[in-house]
Amino acid sequence: MAITRVEPVEFVRRLREEVKTHRAVTHPFLTRFAAGGLARWQLWGYGSQHYYLVGFFTAYLEAIANRTPDAQVRALVRDILEDEYMRRQSFERSHPALYRRFLRAIGFSEGEWDQIPLLPATRTFVTLHLDMTLRSWLEALGAVGPGHEWAIPPMFGHLLQGIERSVPIAPEALEYFRLHIDLDVKHGKLLEQGLVRWAESEEHQDLIRRGAQRSLEARASFWDALGQQLFGD
Ligand SMILES: [Fe+2]
Ligand SMILES: [Fe+2]
Q1: What pLDDT score was predicted for residue 158?
Q2: CATH fold for the domain made of 8-231
């Protein structure tokens, strides 16, 4: 019987389709949020929970860079880390710092963002991702590449629209969102090179897909929880 092995490039193409149509990316919370007219407490609720996710993202990348046996993947991931930390420019432009600009603009005072109680779905999201980085760097690559960098541009478009349609806000305060809509397309392509290098066996393909799916499932649960809190869904 002929073996129907999926070529790496085709595997990656199919995975892109799966991400594009995943519930995390097409989630009703995002559509509702994008419609705008949000009260300040709703923006706060969203911002405080999302900030926690933003702060942990580099930990997953650092773990992949440390654990991969592939020097080329390590180089790709380090490149993305440089963008995250913005060390070449200034720490004030690290991605969490850009997010804090947004939080200040919607009325948070300094450090207040660390005092907001986290929803269980917010904690679970981070725990799950940290757990993946310990389990398998390839699964983590699926979570960070397809699960984050591919999914973020379409998701963040909705967030940006919803904020702009809710409060008058300075453009600098929205840089975090604008930046990611473009930058993550680049990051997504970089990580795709790493995926193609490693997606040569069914076993590896399963790990990558599993990472992507687990990440997106956790994201969908995160939107579910925010939908409940903000809109009483
Ligand atoms: Fe980022
Ligand atoms: Fe990125």
Answers
A1: 98
A2: Heme Oxygenase; Chain A (1.20.910)
- Cα–ligand 1 centroid distance for 128 (angstroms): 19
What pLDDT is attached to residue 1? 44
pLDDT at 233: 77
Start-to-end C-alpha separation, the chain: 50
Give the CA dihedral 75, 191, 60, 137, nearest 10 degrees: -80
Q: What percent of the chain has pLDDT over 70?
A: 96
Cα(3) to centroid of ligand 1, in Å?
A: 40
- 145-175: b (≥16 Cβ within 10 Å) or e: bbbbbbbbbbbbbbbbbbbeebeeeeeebbb
91 Cα to the center of ligand 2, angstroms: 17
User: What does the alpha-carbon distance between residue 146 and residue 13 come to, in Å, rounded to a whole number?
Assistant: 11
Instruction: State whether residue 51 is helix, strand or coil.
Output: helix
Residue 202 CA to residue 6 CA, distance in Å, equals 8
SS3 181: helix
Instruction: Provide the CA 175 distance to its chain's centre, in angstroms.
Output: 16
